[in-house]
Amino acid sequence: MFIDHQALISLMKDKKLSKHQIRWVQKLADFNFKIMYQSDKQNIKINALTRRADFMSRDINDERIQYQRTTILTLNWMKIVDLKKNNDQLIYRQVLDVNEIDENCTLLREAIARDEAQYEDIKLKNCWTQNKILFHNSQLWVSFNKLLQMNLIREVHDQSSIDHSEILRTVKIIKWNYYWSSMRKTIDQYIWNCYVCQRSKTSRDKSNDLLQLLFISEQQWQNIVMNFIINLSDSYDYNAILTVICRLLKERHYISCIIDDEDITVEKTAEMLL
Ligand SMILES: [Zn+2]
After folding, report:
1. Using one digit for the tens of pLDDT, what is the confidence trace for 164-207?
2. Is the model's pTM score more than 0.90?
3. How much distance in Å is there from the Cα of 23 to the middle of ligand 1?
4. What are the structural domains of the chain?
5. CA of 184 to the centre of ligand 1 (A)
6. Measured in angstroms, how far is the CA atom of residue 191 from the centroid of ligand 1?
7. What spacing in Å lies between the alpha carbon of 105 and ligand 1's midpoint?
8. Distance, first Cα to last Cα, the chain
């Protein structure tokens, strides 16, 4: 493959690639090809197809004019492939079927028939029905069925022409035909959990610093931890326990004490410890 973008040559050779480049290299790995650089001037055939007509030479003998109508893909190159059933149609059919029999949709249809302005927290101003199917403006109503909604988002978000595009684009495409309340939230949730999206996303967090080791004491009882266990029932006039633990030996002392309504102060604690 001859291209006039020199930087692309290193894409297949570089050992250090960004996450975004890795995604493309993985995709391209399915094809058998080699990228070769050819300068603008040498790349006449490609230029003839891609350059704007008004930049083209007027000279009939110019090679770019000669190659302008070259057939690059001949018929022999094309294969006739069986087209799979259109998934879009399948999911549309599923949404229609659920819409027709779903209990919530039935309740909504009944509320619309009674000319109610609102059903629970759903405003019915833009909702209408036709042949037992519920619509919202020009969009088909999707019932509150998590699995159906997830299937629908997957169908749009994972298909090859959209290819895991960002949240806003996925929302826009789904909104063309479908509606459900808190749609944005469901789509956010799906994409945040999408394995492919999460793997190809560049981390924008600050890189983590090295782990800070805890202080290691050199002799026993140099570094201690103290804790009060309070709200115990009275026992020999005491109602709390002060625990003192040596961090090095893990040896511990339990000091019975009284904690009344007054706050326990530093002085009091020091006294107890001594
Ligand atoms: Zn994704």
Report:
1. 888 888 898 899 889 998 899 999 999 989 888 888 777 777 77
2. no
3. 12
4. 1-81 (no CATH), 88-200 (1.10.340.70), 224-273 (no CATH)
5. 15
6. 5
7. 30
8. 83
